[in-house]
Amino acid sequence: MNYMKHGEHFLKEFPGRVPILIHRRDNDDLPNLSKTRYLVPSDMQFMHFMCVLRKKLILPPHKALFLFTTKRRLINNSMQVGSIYESDKCDDGYLRITYASENAFG
Question: Which fold is adopted by the domain 3-103?
Answer without folding.
Answer: Ubiquitin-like (UB roll) (3.10.20)
